[in-house]
Design brief:
seven-stranded mixed β-sheet, single chain, alpha/beta, about 350 residues, about 45% helix, globular, five-stranded mixed β-sheet, Isopropylmalate Dehydrogenase
Length: about 350
Amino acid sequence: MKIIIDGYGGDNAPQEIIKGCVLAVNEIADLNLVITGKKNEIEKILKNLGYTGDKIEIINAESVISGDDENPAKLIKAMPDSSIVVAFETLKQRDDIDALISAGSTGAVLAGAILKIGRIKGVSRPGLAPTLPTKIEDKGVLLIDCGANADCKPINLCHFAAMGSVYYEMIYGIKNPRVALLNVGTEDAKGNIMIKESFKLMKKMPINFVGNLEARDALSGDYEVIVADGFSGNLALKSIEGAVSLVMSNLKKEIKASFLAKIGYLFMKKAFNKLKNRFDYTKYGGSQFLGCKKPIFKAHGNSNAESIVIVIKQAISVANNNLNQKIEELVNSIDIKED
């Protein structure tokens, strides 16, 4: 297994990215990594970390596309020496590399995936698919799409549903995962024209489609896959992240507000830490860009070394289970024609 990592993508790059790579190769047998970025700096960091093995290859890339850049899609073409473009070019050219991971600009990852790698045969559009926590311990829910495709057609949502179903069953081992369509109500007739048509088509698909879902129930644990257009999905994702952050920050503030609250916290510290860990995005790995010819993962921009290890393990699992072949088989079995 060989995975390529954008060494300069993310808020904590390159230190935490490289540290995560070292942790991964030390823990996982038969794993080799390729890191793209400034070779001299990467070599110094590896030396400071005490790494002297031969399981990490470095490919030099002198520039970086950051999340602050206004048009990352244009920069994919304009900056061929950037760490993420070099990673995509290497993934495209080398058959020995199984997957790509970047914590860098989401726009650059999506643009690179489309321009450099391309779609699985039959997939109308790839979709970004993060796993979110639910109120059920050790169970996540997959949201697809959460920002790659702001404007969608029914066929796109149907393909998201198919890909999400295959992915969830493979990763979590749950047969016939429940697939729901994000909507403004649970009634069958709810939604705009695109959502209503998507609903009708999904009912005919060979997946466990259970109908519409309201955003307030996204983390209920009653569903395994949530399907959305990228615009609505991103709004839902950011709203959930904001709500969780608000609750956690206010909880911390109230605990500090009085002596009795602090005493109470000491008795409930274990429960609070458990709750914090359950809603910690770093424990859920990266978002796979489902539908591309090779597995591509977008790690959170604030990923630390431990987060990178989790995403690497995700990529290994996907590559080992022939996910793309299974997606292609299901997508091409669906009798839906794009207008």
